[in-house]
Amino acid sequence: MQEAGRERDRAAAAADLGGVAASVRPTVSLPPAVGLLFPRRCLWLGDHYQLAVATRASILLIVLTRRAKGSQELLCRSMFLLIYLPELETRPNLIAVSESPNDNSLSLHVAFHEMSVSFFFQLQDTAAVSTKPAKRYPLALWIGILGLIMLVAVYIFSLSLKQNGMLFGLMQTNLIEKEREKPCHDPSIPDTEIPYLHYPMPNTYDRKECACTGVRFFAILSMQRSGSGWVETLLNSHPNISSNGEIFSVKERRSNITAITKTLDRLYNLDWYSSAAKNECTAAVGLKWMLNQGLMKHHQEIVEYFNRRGVSAIFLLRRNLLRRYVSILANAHDSAMKQLNGTHKAHVHSKHEAEILAQYKPTIDKKTLITELKRSDKLAADALVNFKNTRHVVLYYEDVVSNRTMLMDVLDFLRLPKRKLFSRHVKIHTKRLCDHIDNWADVTDFLKGTPFESFLNGSRR
Fold this sequence. Notes:
- By secondary structure, the protein is an alpha/beta fold.
- The protein has helices spanning 2-16, 139-163, 166-180, 228-236, 257-268, 291-295, 299-309, 321-337, 351-358, 366-386, 397-402, 406-413, 440-447; strands at residues 41-45, 48-53, 60-67, 74-82, 95-98, 106-111, 118-123, 216-222, 241-243, 284-290, 311-317, 392-396.
- The protein has two domains: 2-133, no CATH class; 198-457, 3-Layer(aba) Sandwich (Rossmann fold).
- The strands form four sheets. A five-stranded parallel sheet has the order 9-10-8-11-12, with helices on both faces.
- The longest helix has 25 residues, at 139-163.
- The two termini are 69 Å apart.
- InterPro entries: Nod_factor_sulfotransferase, P-loop_NTPase.
- It comes from Zea mays (Maize).
């Protein structure tokens, strides 16, 4: 079957190449070779090397063949764009190219199935013939199209690299090499830790003896009334940790991604002044960042920033979202009523103050309860998905309350020496959930049979 197909191809090519003597010499100009393409098929026909190429557009792609000296091999040497033939508008189906075996010049035979006309030209070793063109297709146009195709290819390739994590790996390798060249580099530090260890040079002061103390960057990612304030004070009791609170509670600092990165750069360069400043050498610096403070809106850019700057994320979430909702309502009430001597306190430092605030029992609107619980649940789930490719750890408030040793895991995560941590914060709502909700019976009946029923008895979902 294959041999029969070859015979048909040879016969068709031979017929197309007939009548060379009576051929017409067209007006044509060939530009220099611009690359090499493999031909669709190469045919052997007697003493001639031939090439058949099917075209699909008005641009005619021809691969010229040249025989090596003393050899019978077919070498596909160059690709030429034949762009000055007006007849190409007819879109020929078959182009046949051959060379004369006994001459240094190339004989190019072009056979058009749709046109019963053959063309003949002599191509010298310069591989170009220049005569007056009858019609020109602008060369600059095709160069522009070729350049555009190359740009698109490079863009798609870069996206593929980024998606597979290869680009980030290359960036980390480059970062490791740069860190090794710095005077403060410790050769005992594993390569995997180098991207997360920094030596900031503040613009506002000199670190002096702390200059070669490595600093880790972190961010506590949480939601309001999830225990983030309490956990942050515990971490700040460590002599080498500086966590600077809710920096992005100020709207101007989170107005756009440029403002966000500018604020983060200032923070991680140790140029941010707050009560978290330490007399000891800072070994970890960070902030408390609520999910609704621009974090989710610009999560793609922030993930890229975290990975590029080596920022570690500490998620602090709450399992029982109903208790969190009660705390939100109680805090909103105190913000309006200012129950502690005319001042509002989101966190208290004495049992007496906690008891005063705990006296308020909110009445929960059943119409909005399910919506609020679903919204909070989805927000936390989306955050975990969006930041899954960062270096992170996930904590739950209930787990930390029942097991303080989990904070030692956080110190290990930040590669810091373990210390006993303490906080002056006093928990406000310490009783059973039914003692903190005014319309408890209605809420119980409403949540039964829903995915949130387990919250009623304080269970963790």
